[in-house]
Amino acid sequence: xxxxxxxxxxxxxxxxxxxxxxxxxxxxxxxxxxxxxxxxxxxxxxxxxxxxxxxxxxxxxxxxxxxxxxx
Length: 71
Description:
Layout: E1 18-22, E2 25-38, E3 41-53, E4 68-70
Antiparallel strand pairs: 1-2, 2-3, 3-4
């Protein structure tokens, strides 16, 4: 997940949960009220919520750890 930290991704529609495919599963982020200035303009900060694994992979199970923020 560290390789996603600080990444900027378009979200359609804005303000919704962000779900990013990542290493055979998905990283889920929830919107926060924070914003951060970036070279691309003002970005909403999302907080990492959980990781879910692709169910098609043998032995894959949902995992959860502490929250992390992603601008």
